[in-house]
Design brief:
Largest sheet: 4 strands, antiparallel
Helix content: 25-40%
Radius of gyration: 17 Å
Shape: elongated
Number of helices: 1
Structural class: alpha+beta
Number of strands: 4
Number of domains: 1
Oligomer: single chain
């Protein structure tokens, strides 16, 4: 099995990896001590999906629950 690897990919200060295995491109990265992975049919789709996933992971880290004071 041949594998093609793209090293040094970076988006919004997050390093990610794109790897081709047979007819499938796999992507992965880690942020906030959690790893995220996915698969795509083409390299372009893999890059796009990885970058969208990075955006989602970073936005989740910015959200916090704010409780409203109840009126008595």
């Amino acid at each position: 099995m041949r594998e093609r690897r793209e090293d040094g990919m970076r988006y919004r200060d997050v390093d990610y990896t794109i790897v081709q295995e047979r007819q499938l491109w796999k992507w992965g990265f880690a942020v906030y001590k959690k790893s995220h992975t996915g698969e795509a049919a083409t390299k372009t789709e893999a890059v796009s999906e990885a970058e969208r996933a990075i955006d989602r992971a970073l936005s989740l880290g910015k959200l916090r629950v704010v409780r409203q004071k109840s009126e008595r």
